[in-house]
Amino acid sequence: MSYHQALGISFTGAIELGGKVISDPFLSEFACEANRFSNADKGLPAGPPCAPTAAVPSSAGIGLHNFVAPLRVYTFHKQNPWVFPAGVAAIAGLVYYLGFEAGKGRK
Length: 107
Known about the structure:
Elements: H1 3-7, H2 11-23, H3 27-41, H4 65-79, H5 83-105
């Protein structure tokens, strides 16, 4: 059994998929964000923010637009690891404060 038969992809199907990836309007932004992520993962400065892709229908291409935002968030997290724990602490403090204020009003 050959490799492409095990995956269930024919040669022409692979060529069509490659064409869809190349024609995706978000490919350049995705590649830029992936490069920033790679730099941040290595401990290097991520570099300048990527230029956003102009408004295009989300049905164009294979859906790389679904991966751009998570890459941005993870890159931001790699650059600023203190932000998310601080956010969790702020939310927990807010819940505690609201509970404290609600308890004071019942006396």
